[in-house]
Structure formats: structure tokens, C-alpha cells
Amino acid sequence: MGNVIIVGTQWGDEGKGKIVDYLTEKADVVARYQGGHNAGHTVVIGKEQFILHLIPSGILHKDKLCLIGNGVVIAPDALIEEIDGLLDIGLEVGDNLKISKNAHVIMPYHIALDNQKEAAKGKKKIGTTGRGIGPAYVDKMARAGIKMVDLLWPDVFREKLESNLGEINTIMTKLYNAPVFEINELFDKCMEYKERLSDFIDDTDIIINDRLKRGDNILFEGAQGTLLDIDHGTYPYVTSSNATAGGAMTGMGVGPTMIDSVLGIAKAYTTRVGGGPFPSELNDETGEKIREKGGEYGATTGRPRRCGWLDLVVLRHSVRINGLTGLVITKLDVLDGFDKLMVCTGYKYGDTVLNDFPKELSILDSCTPVLEEFNGWSEKTKGVKSFKELPENAKLYVGMIEERLDVPIHIISTGQDRDDTIIVKDVF
Ligand code: GDP
Ligand code: IMO
Ligand code: MG
């Protein structure tokens, strides 16, 4: 038993939602620690598909406590829509969901700023999800943010809103020639949100530490991935939070001594959505084939995901930054039927081969992947129930990842459904 951080090892969409849902059975609490409704976590149970953006993927299980931590930025309307969507299909969303008082609010002006800034960047745009994530975290760091707890204190809320709108509206008119935000309208809307959300707003730091003391098993659900982390990703082509394991500590208010393991989720290949470097990207028929077979279209924005071979340079970086104790390989089934598989083992830059992920965008832009060839397999992996029943070459492929990264593989996923999961080694 123990407390486990689930973290994306690539550029997001590794299948974190599926794995969190799967592991929730053995957990008592599921805690989301960063990001916002830029995330899209898909869970498939039988014929039903759920896409969660802000609410932990554990919500689909009865009697599990779900927490949204202080590290998350929350668009109240998006959260209400998500809650309503779950209630509509008969799921319970009440005392089983608590939202941190200290989580910051994404205001409509953050969304407007996100889109204006992107438009102004032209070709150099980041390709954000347009959800206001960056500007909301900017305000948090600039000490101008509005927190969920402020919604509960209308006078405080109004004062903060008023002081922010002065600057925001100047930017809107003078810089972007865009419409201004009207204080009464915004205030009234937010008070409506408060009516819906106030019962959920709580001291999640106290709740989670009480649960830890009690000996509960806690799953920390990361959003995005290591290469999208604000400090350790392909900056500036990243999101604005710490998607890596460290973010779980600050994003929930939990000490590092409480964590037993860090499980990295990795697709059997690589994808990325939005702009920025991607050394093992395939801009050809093979990339297209992976996209179609893997259904690689964004769960939040529907954008086609860029696809490429598995990149061990990326994964080595993730192992290091997150202190991974274990790995989960997802979407192995998508590679069924490939005659040959390539794996990026290093980056060729001039006359040298880099084994570590470079910090310089200029190097990333001009390096080429060093590819090693592996034999594929023709058999179906979906439906296989144990590691030893996998096709021989699939075993060799997965074994190679474990050996090269020197991190044990705990789970292999071979399909969207809960059932398409092979346990190699116990997680808890
Ligand atoms: P997340 O953001 O990390 O939770 O991942 P997403 O939900 O955005 O994207 C992963 C997609 O792959 C979803 O549509 C999942 O249902 C799907 N998926 C997860 N694991 C597997 C798998 O092993 N095989 C296949 N074919 N699909 C999977
Ligand atoms: P999950 O949790 C994949 C990407 C965006 C863009 C960059 C910045 O589902 O894995 P933002 O809106 O955060 O300012 O956009 O980050 N991005 C994601 N890519 N999966 C995600 O979340 C992502 N969340 C943000 O596409 O490139
Ligand atoms: Mg996703």
C-alpha cells in the first residue's frame, strides 16, 4: 500500500486518465495537483467514454474522495459543466469532491488574454488550448490572482476584481483594441458560480494530510507531461505549471516524505499537440498511420496530435526529473502490425550524439534523431492478459525500454478499456 504520483513522461496524453481510473480501485483518495481544463483525460468503461478535464479520473468510482488541489487553476463555468455532465449520467458528485480554497480562478479575461497573446505571436504561437491557463498562472505569480476562497467573500472578491480590471481593460483597449470587461457583469456571474460551488470549496491541504495520517492510499493525478513542464519542458512551448512529480507536493500541500512511488506513464510511441520541438516526429505516412490507429486527436481541442517514434532521450529525462520508481507503457496495441519499429536513442547534433535532452531550442531544432530498428509483431495485443502471452517481439520491445531506462515496468496497456490492462508488477 502507499501513496503514488502519476505523471506524464512525454508531451501529455499518455493515457494518464485510463491508468488513474484503473488504479483508483485500490486507492482511497485521488488528488489532481496542477493544470486546468487544458487537460483531457479519457476513461473508457465498456461502451461508455468519459473525458475529464478538471475533476480527478477517480470520480468514476463510488466512495473515493476526489480532491482538486491548490496547484490547479479553475474556470468555474468549466467545472460546473463537468460536474453537471457527471450528474446527468447518474454519477455521484457531492461530498466526494473537494476543491482547494487556494486554487486560483481562471477569469474570462485570462481566456481573452490567452487568445490575444497567441494571435499576436503569429508563426511563433505556442498552440495553447486557449483556456486561459498561462495568464491565470501569470496573475498567481504576480500576486494578482483571485482564489476560489475569494468567491466566498464577495467584498474581498469585488475589491480584487476591481483592482485587476483597471489594468486588464487598459491592455484590452490599448494593446489589443478589444472589448473591455464590465465589473458588474463579471461580479454577478461569479456570484452565480459561487452558489453552485461553495459546498465543494474546502481546506484540501488539511483533508489530504489527515487522510495520509490515517494511512489512506492516495493517488496524485498529474496533468500534461514532463516535456510540457514550465521548468523542465521545451520552454516556451510548454504549459504554465509544474506537471512533474514535484508539482504534486506544492500543488497539494503534501511533504515529499509522504510519497512512496512515482509512476511515469509513457505511450509506446510519442505524440505532441501544439507547437514546439519534437525530434522523433514523423511527418510521413508512418506518422499518419500511428495517428489513425491510435486515434490521436486531442481530448480537449480535437486537434490532430503530431506523432513520432518512441524517444528514449525524452524518457531518460523524465526518469531523472521525476525520480520515477516505475513505468506504465500504454497503447502498445497501436504498434501491432508494424513490420519494423524505430526507437530514438540519441540526438545527432553536428558530429556529436547527445544522450541527454538539450536545454537549447536551437539545438533541438537542428538535431536529428538517432534511430535504432526493432522487429515488429503481427499478432493482436489487445485481449492479452499476461506479459508472457504477449507476442515475442512485443516482449522484447517492452523489455528493451525497461532495460535501457533501468526502471521497472509495472503495467502495460493494450486498449482503451479498463480490461485491456496487463499488470506486470504490483503498484501499491
Ligand atoms: P491523458 O491526457 O494522459 O489522460 O490521455 P488522453 O485521454 O488525452 O489520451 C489517451 C487516449 O488513448 C485516450 O483516448 C485513451 O482512451 C486512449 N488509450 C489509453 N490507453 C490506451 C491503450 O492502451 N490503447 C489504446 N488503443 N488506446 C488507449
Ligand atoms: P493532458 O493532461 C497535451 C499543450 C497545448 C500547448 C501547450 C500550452 O490531457 O495530457 P496551455 O493551454 O496549457 O497553455 O497550452 O500545452 N497542452 C497539452 N498537450 N495534453 C495536455 O493535457 C495538454 N495541456 C496542454 O497543446 O502545446
Ligand atoms: Mg489528454
List keywords for this structure.
Adenylosuccinate Synthetase, Chain A, domain 3, four-stranded mixed beta sheet, binds magnesium ion, alpha/beta, binds guanosine-5'-diphosphate
Q: Give the C-alpha Rg.
A: 22 Å
Structural class: alpha/beta
Q: What summary fits the major beta sheet? A: 10 strands, mixed
Percent of residues in helices comes to: 25-40%
Strand percentage lies at 15-25%
Trace the largest sheet across and list its strands: 9-7-5-2-10-1-11-15-19-20
How many β strands by DSSP? 20
The quaternary state of the protein chains shown equals single chain
The tally of domains stands at 2
According to CATH, the fold-level topology of the largest domain is: Adenylosuccinate Synthetase, Chain A, domain 3
Mean pLDDT reading: 97
